[in-house]
Write a structure and sequence with these properties.
The complex is a heterodimer of chains A (286) and B (534).
Chain A: H1 2-10, H2 21-44, H3 77-113, H4 115-130, H5 133-144, H6 148-174, H7 178-185, H8 190-226, H9 237-245, H10 253-280
Chain B: H1 5-11, H2 26-30, E1 38-43, H3 57-66, E2 71-73, E3 79-81, E4 84-89, E5 95-100, H4 114-128, H5 132-135, E6 139-146, E7 149-154, H6 175-178, E8 198-204, E9 208-213, E10 227-232, H7 236-244, E11 250-251, H8 258-265, E12 270-271, E13 282-288, H9 298-307, H10 310-316, E14 323-324, H11 348-357, E15 369-375, H12 381-395, E16 398-402, H13 407-415, E17 423-429, H14 434-437, H15 439-442, H16 462-473, H17 477-494, E18 497-502, E19 508-510, E20 513-514, E21 531-532
Parallel strand pairs in B: 1-10, 1-11, 15-16, 15-17
Antiparallel strand pairs in B: 2-3, 4-5, 5-7, 6-7, 8-9, 9-10, 11-19, 12-19, 13-17, 13-18, 14-18, 20-21
Helix pairs in contact in B: 9-11, 16-17
The chains are: A mainly alpha (286), B alpha+beta (534).
């Protein structure tokens, strides 16, 4: 998944065709809708998702006020879904932000300083890249006990290397360009060169890579929850699928609904990510 | 066959004669058994095959097929002769005389003698068996006046030993193979020479264990089956499919998920027996850390129990398996169980008023008390129960934070130094005798940091200790029962542990398999009388 992120940014542009604008727009619209559901969950279900709303195992569309039915403990699946969107989006965005910042700092340092600093930082990055990321997340979460914060942190810890490598590559190419050389010539402070001159020029690539990382983070969180390693005190889509698994033969909707939600969210993030790539990647501009 | 009064009175408290062939019910003889055939059962991979050195669940299911016990218990927990033809406990409960059957041999042809019994008791059970270490703690020596007689000497009354003489609690192992070796690493633990109705043939790790009929078994015509193939399948969904496809006949100890069990039960060829697990006394409960000042008041504990709709939990989370527990002794242990104890019906009003009385008033957001809850990290049920408890306690203003953890972290929190927990939802086997299976959770001398399934709640009450200690030492069965009734009343009054439900340790089987639940150990029985109907 992280590999895919790298491919998006480095793929030869000429062979690629721009995706239709409509797909991009509808992706954004769908994401906005999910975000809205997450934000307004508290208005529709002020008591939270952890209350019995009806008879357990009420199928969808059979009881008034319970459009998606209830789960094993009689909780409203629609409420769980809305509150679960909060968790998925929060973890997706927060962990990606953290990973992006970490990746930029390490990549920028390595790319600008070069020499032994670059070598040391890149070997360090490779250590993280050689460990299968999902396994690594599981280990971290088990060690630090699963809460929203530790899961976010664990995902960030495994997702920064692609950003670091990308930023480093951009820095290597940008720092030998004329505008940077002229900055050096006029005696500009290195920090200013890095932050004011080079960094803004590689932001577009970072945004593209990051957008796909959000999708990965959502999937990882769902996977963790499915394995019972999510935060047990929150409603989470992966956790809902895991809870529904036991009764998949008798009440399949309990697995299908949250599973579909994960699918839609990840698909939308990818569509939007690709759309951003089409629009922001300088090599893709016509 | 000798009839022995003491043996029966200790087993049940009522005198019945040993049936001519122990362990068989009359119903079982109503139809004649089918000889031969291969039985396929499912098991999780055991760590060994000898129960004498381990109480691990899968071992307890397979080992009694390879090894006989001194006795076997019938469904009412009356001891039935197996290797021993008589077991007699003296009136002071400090001397137990075991007389072995004549002509018994190990699977390798060596004779089984009282020396094997003495060696097993002194060198194996009291040293290595996790429960045997406490059950046989008072054992000082075993005299062997002749080849068939073993006399157990106890330094204090040990009446409860009579309830722990079967193949999974007190398994006689061959002295000629174990003597002078490191018992825990003896190769016999993995490829045993046994004494039971089935002989070990081979064990393909991760695939199967093959057992075949012992032609020289002491019971004429038994075992009925030619072979038992033990399929080592860990995944519960794969197990359910194997049952559906009729690729396997049986498995014990809650082999599939509860939802799958209810679904499989609908199939015409699948049956879930309603007995054959009484001896496990499986029950679920919530331990409360009474060291915490906010949980020290029994009113708070009573309030928590009043706030829980345990009927609804059994219906929705446990798929209607089991029933609401009244205390730490499950109703399946009929000898010692009493329902005549304080009970706490589902009543949120009462729960709230008890919390008010204890001084817990709601804050701005309606929260009276914040508690953590650690579910035992085995299987998907405990976390679901925890979610259900969180949801129910929120109604009375108790905000619960569930903490999920791996097993090591869980044990460290609940049983480790400092006992860093408020509530834990867990389960245990009460086994056949409260002294063996229940005392550990209530006895103040069993508050031992670092020992799993010890007294984690920190409950220490001199009166409770007195009751438990007298019950353990009491030789008179009737007085023991009385003491255990007193124990249950006190446990339900003080509530260091909140009873949730008695959980059947059920088996799933194909209806072709007959006569498999002839003891309260069910699938942990010898299967010598089990057969496959046409």
């Amino acid at each position: 998944m992280t590999d895919a992120a790298v491919t998006v940014a480095t793929e030869t542009p000429l062979r690629r065709r721009k995706r239709p604008r409509a797909v991009f727009i509808s992706g954004i619209a769908m994401l906005a809708l999910i975000a809205l559901a997450a934000l307004t969950a508290g208005l529709f279900w002020p008591a939270g998702p952890w209350v019995a709303a009806g008879e357990p195992y009420t199928p969808p569309m059979t009881a008034p006020g319970l459009p998606l039915g209830t789960d094993v403990l009689g909780r409203d699946v629609a409420a769980m879904l809305a509150y679960g969107a909060r968790v998925s989006m929060l973890i997706g965005i927060a962990s990606t932000l953290a990973a992006a910042i970490l990746g930029i700092v390490i990549g920028a340092t390595a790319g600008y300083a070069r020499g032994w600093v670059d070598d040391a930082l890149m070997r360090f990055t490779e250590v993280f890249q050689t460990i299968p990321s999902f396994m690594f997340v599981i280990v971290l979460v088990v060690i630090f006990t699963p809460t929203i914060a530790t899961i976010t942190l664990a995902i960030a810890v495994v997702s920064w290397p692609p950003v670091a490598r990308l930023v480093r590559a951009e820095f290597l190419s940008l720092s030998s360009r004329e505008f940077v050389q002229s900055c050096r010539l006029i005696g500009m402070h290195p920090a200013r060169i890095v932050f004011a001159e080079i960094l803004p020029n590689c932001f577009s690539s970072v945004i593209v890579v990051s957008s796909v990382m959000v999708a990965t983070a959502v999937l990882v969180e769902a996977g963790l929850s499915f394995l019972g390693l999510g935060d047990p005190n929150t409603a989470s889509w992966g956790g809902m699928v895991a809870n529904g698994k036991a009764v998949i033969r008798s009440s399949p909707y309990l697995s299908i609904i949250p599973g579909f939600a994960i699918f839609v969210l990840v698909l939308c993030i990818n569509v939007v990510g690709e759309g951003l790539n089409d629009r922001l990647n300088p090599r893709m501009r016509n | 066959m000798e009839i022995n009064r003491r043996l029966f009175t200790l087993g049940l408290g009522s005198a019945v004669a040993w049936p001519a062939l122990g362990g068989l019910t009359t119903a079982a003889y109503a139809q004649s058994p089918v000889m031969g055939g291969t039985l396929r059962i499912i098991l999780s991979e055991p760590v060994g095959l000898v129960s004498a050195v381990s109480s691990q669940g899968p071992i307890a299911q397979i080992s009694p097929k390879i090894f006989d016990g001194l006795v076997e218990y019938d469904l009412d927990m009356n001891p039935q002769p197996q290797m021993a033809t008589s077991v007699e406990m003296s009136d002071d409960a400090q001397t137990m005389t075991v007389v072995l059957r004549e002509g018994l041999t190990w699977h390798d042809g060596e004779p089984i003698t009282s020396a094997d019994v003495a060696f097993s008791a002194m060198e194996v059970w009291s040293q290595f068996h996790p429960r045997g270490r406490s059950t046989y703690a008072a054992l000082t020596e075993v005299e062997t006046p002749d080849e068939l007689t073993a006399i157990f000497k106890f330094s204090k009354p040990s009446a409860f030993v009579m309830n722990a003489l079967n193949a999974s609690e007190a398994q006689v192992v061959p002295k000629h193979i174990y003597e002078g070796t490191d018992i825990l690493t003896n190769p016999n633990n993995l490829a045993p020479v046994g004494s039971g109705p089935f002989k070990f043939v081979e064990w393909q790790q991760g695939e199967y264990i093959l057992l075949e009929k012992n032609e020289n078994y002491w019971k004429e015509d038994e075992p009925y089956l030619d072979q038992i193939v033990v399929l080592l399948i860990a995944d519960s969904a794969s197990r359910a499919i194997a049952f559906e496809a009729q690729e396997v006949e049986a498995a014990g100890a809650i082999p599939v998920s509860l939802a799958d069990a209810r679904r499989l039960e609908e199939l015409p060829f699948i049956e879930i027996p309603e007995s054959g697990y009484e001896a496990y006394g499986n029950n679920n409960f919530m331990e409360v850390n009474v060291r915490r000042e906010y949980l020290a008041d029994p009113k708070v504990r009573q309030a928590i129990l009043h706030a829980l709709d345990r009927e609804a939990m059994i219906k929705n989370v446990y798929f209607e398996f089991g029933k609401v527990a009244t205390g730490p002794v499950p109703s399946t242990i009929s000898t010692y169980y009493t329902a005549d104890v304080p009970t706490y019906e589902f009543d949120t009003e009462k729960a709230i008023s008890l919390l008010e009385e204890a001084g817990f008033t709601p804050d701005g957001s309606g929260v009276r008390l914040n508690l953590t809850l650690d579910p035992l990290p085995y299987g998907p049920i405990y976390p679901t129960v925890a979610a259900s408890i969180k949801q129910q306690l929120a109604v009375v203003g108790i905000e619960v934070t569930i903490r999920s953890a791996d097993a090591a972290t869980y044990y460290q929190r609940v049983y480790g130094e400092g006992n860093d927990f408020d509530l834990t939802i867990t389960g245990a086997s009460a086994l056949t005798d409260p002294t063996i299976g229940v005392q550990r959770f209530f006895w103040s001398k069993n508050i031992i940091a670092g020992v799993p399934f010890s007294n984690a709640s920190g409950y220490a009450d001199p009166e409770m200790d007195e009751i438990l200690e007298s019950a353990a030492a009491e030789p008179d069965p009737a007085k023991r029962i009385e003491l255990f009734h007193k124990f249950q009343v006190k446990a339900a009054t003080d509530l260091p542990i909140l009873p949730i439900n008695d959980m059947p340790y059920f088996a799933v089987k194909n209806t072709r398999l007959q006569n498999s639940e002839v003891s309260p150990y069910g699938f942990g029985g010898s299967f010598s009388t089990a057969y496959l109907a046409e």
